[in-house]
Amino acid sequence: MSAAAGIPGFGRLIPGGSGPAGRAWLVTFTDLVCLLLTFFVMLFAMSEPDPRRYAAFAQGLPGEAAPRQDGEATPRTAFNAEGTDREQAIDLGYLGRVFESQMAGRAELANVRMTRREDHIVLALPSDLLFTSDSAELSPAGRRAVFLLGGIAANLGNAVDVVGHADPATPGPRWPSNWELSLARAGAVADALADAGYQRDITVRGQGDAAFGEVAPWLPEVRRRELARRVDLIVREHRASGEQGGLP
User: Fold this and answer.
1) Which of 1, 130, 170, 236 has the CB geometry, 3.0–4.6 Å to 142, for a possible disulfide?
2) CA distance linking residue 236 with residue 241, whole number of Å
3) CA-CA distance, 125 to 154, in Å (whole number)?
């Protein structure tokens, strides 16, 4: 007999007594508590968060601005590891002016198009400048152009991507698809950048003709295909891995 059984009125606190058979009501009570918890979880899941409280919370997290439905930008998105782990490198505005000054007056770079994005600079090198038809071997003029740009990139601590693109035309028998052709051309440009002095890691990608729809649709088809055949040199705002450099 337990000590609690000797307490006056204790039997009335536990329905059915204190024995094992008398505690069967605990199973029903536990089920009831679980059902109540499930009910409140469902209520919370179906509720809509307060936009003001969410905006205040998101503003304190690292990340990039994201558009809302009304067209404006929210203060911040959710946690962004890239935004916290990667250090800022040379300012892109300054780099843009450096590239512009270096390309000015150089016939080899006359057809290189530079575009400034929010977090990177794109230098679009026409494939017709870099390669002969259906080839992934740099022509003398293409090697000279990449060498000039590589001389600038060699002084950068910024991360660099090289992305190859192609038009929708079927490639020659040497290439199974436009993706292989664009990747091989991107690799050739990356190798030439390394030869020109850029010794940090380079990300190389082939896009094939996947981005052809983004080429200005108002232009004639022939011109669109010319613009689609290119290798993009993308200079990021964050630092590359390995030894860091910098422009004076």
Assistant:
1) 130
2) 12
3) 18
Burial of 43-77, coded b for 16+ CB within 10 Å and e otherwise, reads eeeeeeeeeeeeeeebeeeebeeeeeeeeeebebe
Q: Which residues of 201-212 are buried (b: 16+ CB within 10 A; e: fewer)?
A: ebebbbbbbeeb
Q: Give the contacts of 203 (CB within 8 A, at least 6 positions apart).
A: 159, 160, 161, 162
Q: How far apart are the first and last CA of the chain?
A: 89
**pLDDT of the chain along its 248 residues, tens only?**
445 555 555 455 555 555 656 667 777 888 888 888 888 877 777 666 566 555 555 555 544 444 444 444 444 333 333 443 455 657 777 778 878 887 887 888 888 888 888 788 888 999 888 988 888 899 998 898 888 888 877 777 788 899 999 888 888 888 888 899 999 999 999 999 988 888 888 889 998 888 887 788 888 888 888 888 889 988 887 766 654 444 33
Sheet containing 120-126: order of strands: 113-116, 120-126, 230-239, 158-165, 202-206
Q: Would you call 136 helix, strand, or coil by DSSP? A: coil
Tell me which residue has tokens 């977090």: 119
pTM above 0.90, yes or no: no
Q: Which two tokens stand for residue 144?
A: 């000279």
